[in-house]
Design a protein that fits this description.
- The complex is a heterodimer.
- Chain A contains 14 helices and four strands.
- By secondary structure, chain A is mainly alpha-helical.
- Chain A has a domain of 141 residues: Serine Threonine Protein Phosphatase 5, Tetratricopeptide repeat, CATH 1.25.40.
- The model of chain A has no long low-confidence stretch (mean pLDDT 88).
- In chain B, helix 2 runs antiparallel to helix 3, helix 3 packs antiparallel against helix 6 and helix 3 runs parallel beside helix 7.
- Chain B is an all-alpha fold.
- The model of chain B has no long low-confidence stretch (mean pLDDT 87).
- Classes of the chains: A mainly alpha, B mainly alpha.
- At the A-B interface, helix 2 and helix 3 of A face helix 3 and helix 8 of B.
Chain lengths: 349, 260
């Protein structure tokens, strides 16, 4: 029916397809210990023909599948991939994902962070050189220092170097509140309360209302923690609670005077921090309004109050943002679905 | 004179727009822009960065291919079709003919580059990259302006080589020029700080005498967040114009000596 040449073509394709199975297996076995050539950074710069970021992307994309590829000699694989990350970041010094993903991979593969720290430190150096050249700061530099600090902290357990990198990041205005709070806590641990308070106060005069309010909350929390720490020390020393703020102040003359501002003790001898409570309440209400806005964006209506306050209230529309904490004593949460405003109202006596 | 150059440029523009080869090259560039989204998906993060980087490289290659495939052979085509005789036997001089061809080609190449760039911006916006485009727009504009300047030089080189040799050789020569023009800076950096002293003098000389296309390459700055150095771009544009004038003068000189 068909030309014999047709059957020759069909037979040829079928034979090639049948052969590909065992050949593919042989190839996979052969490549178990096979790493691909990655040019030296200087050579890569010439080969890129000026398209450095595109070549960096290409090498990065080519290397991604190799993260999970089985490799007989793991040390060799790690050394090779460290070289890949180095070339990628040398071609594009601001390629944060390559630093972040690369350093995580290099640490997790054998629980040794040496190569990861080398990668992150070289990134910090490159970005600082760029900042000096351009005369302006870049967010990536801050993030790289945070990654470096966290790697030192979590893997090397080198608190001193971790603090050095994190403090560098904390001094910059674009540092996130979580990192800043970590540095504040570490400084408090070292007994450097004034430095801790200074870091906590970094964004108190920020023109951005959200940033400023978050800073106020963090600052008041830091003061509260310091007061509570002194109260614990008092208890350890005197085997009893202090009877007044004045007694506690007298016990701890070395702490910054500032921390006592806003600390109170009620008639039952319980510490209260109304300033902190107010800033915390404000942050909680902002968080609730933010969650409600997301709900409205997804469902074209404002959520009922129960959605914000009761976990699992609507199983079809779960509240993935967490639920509100308990309201202040004698008050209850209130949500106005007409305006999307959250507030607290006094409970009837 | 201006009128005659304009007439030749207009004819060249129309002819180039009708060229199927041009359509093919533009489709390749737009295809690369669209395909870059797939590369973005393959990435862990930075999806739109991948789209932007690969697309701009594609548009740069578009400029190169247009110069190689359309520009380098344009003079030979005129001779082959004998239209050059018609034009030159009338009032147009050979200088006007070359200048007209050059202006027409540059305009059509610019149209293709700007069109592809708009396709890139639209593509990024389609994938919700409004904020991304907003943040990188000055750098994106600088990148495309740089590519337009690059096209000015590449077209002049293609015409120069096209008036010197056969279209195939002129195409290869334009490609080599693109490679060398983008490499001299990196080659010179290879010899920085005493590295490879044997080659230092050669690379330093190459850096001086070969047009440096990196002067107008602002693609790498698009996703880095670094501010655009408009003064450098402007100076790069001036440098590109000077080199284009040099190559055009060479093309005119060669074309005037040519016997038909």
């Amino acid at each position: 029916m068909f030309d014999p040449r047709f059957w020759l073509v069909v037979g040829g394709v079928a034979a090639a397809a049948a052969l590909q199975g065992p050949l593919g297996q042989t190839n996979a076995d052969r490549r178990r210990n096979d790493f691909r050539y990655t040019p030296d950074a200087d050579v890569a710069r010439v080969l890129s023909l000026g398209h450095r970021s595109t070549l960096a992307n290409t090498i990065w994309l080519r290397g991604l599948p190799d993260f999970a590829r089985e490799f007989r000699d793991k040390k060799l694989k790690k050394r090779w991939l460290a070289g890949v990350f180095d070339v990628v970041t040398e071609l594009e010094p601001g390629f944060f994902t390559a630093y972040w993903f690369g350093s995580t991979y290099l640490t997790l593969v054998d629980r040794d962070d040496t190569a990861a720290i080398e990668l992150l430190e070289s990134g910090c150096r490159r970005m600082l050189a760029i900042e000096e050249e351009d005369g302006q700061e870049y967010y990536i530099t801050t993030r790289l220092h945070i990654e470096l600090g966290m790697t030192y902290y979590m893997w090397s357990k080198d608190k001193e170097k971790a603090l050095e990198a994190l403090e560098f990041a904390t001094r910059r205005p674009d540092c996130d509140a979580l990192t800043r709070n970590m540095v504040v806590a570490m400084k408090m641990d070292e007994g450097e309360d004034l430095v801790a308070l200074t870091y906590a106060a970094t964004n108190l005069d920020s023109p951005n209302r959200n940033v400023r309010e978050k800073a106020e909350e963090d600052f008041e929390r830091t003061k509260m923690r310091m007061v509570r720490r002194e109260a614990r020390r008092f208890l350890e020393t005197h085997t009893r609670e202090p009877v007044s703020i004045a007694e506690l102040r007298e016990f701890a003359p070395g702490v910054p005077e500032l921390i006592w501002d806003g600390a109170e003790m009620d008639a039952d001898g319980v510490f209260a921090f109304p300033k902190h409570a107010a800033t915390e309440l404000r942050a909680t209400l902002h968080g609730a309004e933010y969650a409600a806005r997301i709900y409205r964006d997804n469902h074209d209506e404002w959520p009922p109050l129960e959605w914000l306050t009761t976990p699992g209230w609507d199983p079809d529309r779960p509240n993935g943002l967490g639920t509100l904490p308990r309201p202040p004593a004698g008050q209850a949460w209130h949500f106005d679905p007409a305006t999307g405003k959250a507030s607290v109202i006094d409970l009837p006596q | 004179m201006i009128g005659r150059i304009r007439a030749i440029a207009s004819a060249t523009f129309r002819e180039a727009v009708r060229d199927k080869l041009l359509l093919l090259v533009v489709l390749f560039a737009i295809g690369l822009v669209l395909f870059s989204r797939v590369l973005g998906w393959l990435s862990v993060e930075d999806e739109l960065k991948m789209v932007q980087d690969f697309s701009l490289t594609g548009i740069s290659l578009l400029g190169l291919f247009l110069a190689m495939l359309v520009g380098a052979g344009s003079l030979a085509r005129e001779v082959e079709r004998r239209t050059v005789y018609t034009v030159l036997t009338r009032t147009a001089t050979r200088t006007e003919f070359i200048l007209g061809k050059y202006v027409g080609l540059v305009l059509v190449f610019w149209l293709c580059i700007v069109g592809s760039w708009l396709a890139l911006v639209a593509w990024v916006l389609t994938w919700g990259g409004g904020a991304f485009v907003g943040a990188t727009l000055p750098a994106l504009v600088a990148a495309v302006v740089g590519l337009l300047f690059e096209s000015v030089v590449l077209t002049s080189v293609a015409l120069f080589l096209g008036s010197l040799s056969a279209p195939a050789i002129a195409s290869v020569g334009t490609f080599v020029f693109y490679m060398v023009g983008h490499s001299t800076e990196a080659l010179r950096e290879l010899t920085d700080q005493g590295k490879n002293p044997d080659f230092a003098a050669a690379f330093a000389l190459l850096y001086r005498v070969v047009p440096n296309l990196e002067n107008v390459n602002f693609i790498n700055a698009t996703t880095s967040g670094r501010p655009v150095d408009w003064v450098s771009l402007g100076l790069g544009g001036v440098s590109a114009a000077v080199w284009a004038a040099v190559f055009l003068a060479g093309a005119v000189a060669l074309f005037r000596k040519r016997q038909f």
